[in-house]
């Protein structure tokens, strides 16, 4: 079974404003609302690929209720801890450029954290636990590590899509799968990654440290897959980007979902990349038919 953890879910308020101006009244041409947060996006995409998962994390207030209602309507299983706070609203402003304003998240009291750990404690050996996105500032700094520690004790496989210091903490738990983008990878190694050779060099160190499957995404510049046997590079399909929010999460879902179904890493890599691009070319997250249509455009070569 696949479980996704979103410690800091969000309602994503996506607004299109033509010629956005700071410091004045702007009016939207289009606005939409989606349940958001990285783990939640992974669960939604898995569901569209007919792969069941359970979404875990903390929700609160009318925004939290909205997320749960939509997920359940779509058929995603949820097992959130409900708090008295209010799930954040993240603004995704589309104008000449994409601008994001993400909330810091709500206060989560310690008894709610205990309730969350009780849910993690129910996972079984060989379950996949996807840890994705930021943590609200109120949570203890070592919370991700504690989740990873419990997962390790239970023989649960970790999938990691976080950035900053949680990434450097979690990498030491030999994740089954990790998907940093090249900026996150650079931050982890405290250097700038400007080309494929540099990305491969850092990626190989992660494989040596015990990461089993690693994808390094580089947006429209392609993606790399590394394991103990080698390094592969995929081209990404060309298209018009409508909304890149959730592209990385879609890659994660496409990869782990296909791997769980077929046990074929190259099929998983191809499907993951096509899923990321299909989301980038859609208003919301990708649909299965859009992903399948892009598969022939993903060319994979061993380096
Ligand atoms: N401009 C683009 N054109 C085609 N595909 C894209 C584009 N941007 C993203 N993608 C697809 O999405 C995948 C993930 O994108 P990216 O490397 O930006 O990850 P990310 O930074 O984790 O994404 P995000 O945080 O926006 O969800 C890429 O590997 C690619 O398949
Ligand atoms: O603030 P975080 O947790 O780092 O990222 C949250 C977020 O930007 O990530 C998702 C896209 O990947 C969005 O649905 C959501 O708003």
TrEMBL record:
* Domain Carbohydrate kinase PfkB: residue ranges: 6-282
InterPro entries given in the database record: 1-PFruKinase, Carboh/pur_kinase_PfkB_CS, PfkB_dom, Ribokinase-like, Tagatose/fructose_Pkinase
Alphabetized UniProt keyword annotations: ATP-binding, Kinase, Lactose metabolism, Nucleotide-binding, RNA-binding, Transferase
List the pathway annotation.
Carbohydrate metabolism; D-tagatose 6-phosphate degradation; D-glyceraldehyde 3-phosphate and glycerone phosphate from D-tagatose 6-phosphate: step 1/2
Superkingdom of the source species: Bacteria
Q: Name one GO biological process term.
A: lactose metabolic process
State the reactions this protein catalyses.
D-tagatofuranose 6-phosphate + ATP = D-tagatofuranose 1,6-bisphosphate + ADP + H(+); beta-D-fructose 1-phosphate + ATP = beta-D-fructose 1,6-bisphosphate + ADP + H(+)
**One MF annotation (Gene Ontology) recorded for this entry:** ATP binding
Q: Which PROSITE patterns does its entry note?
A: KH_TYPE_1, PFKB_KINASES_1, PFKB_KINASES_2
Q: Which GO terms describe its cellular component?
A: cytosol
Name the Enzyme Commission number(s) assigned to this protein: 2.7.1.144
NCBIfam families (alphabetical) = 1-PFK (TIGR03168), pfkB (TIGR03828)
- Main role? Catalyzes the ATP-dependent phosphorylation of fructose-l-phosphate to fructose-l,6-bisphosphate.
Similarity-based family: Belongs to the carbohydrate kinase pfkB family.
Q: What is this protein called?
A: Tagatose-6-phosphate kinase
Q: What is the organism field in this record?
A: Fervidibacillus albus
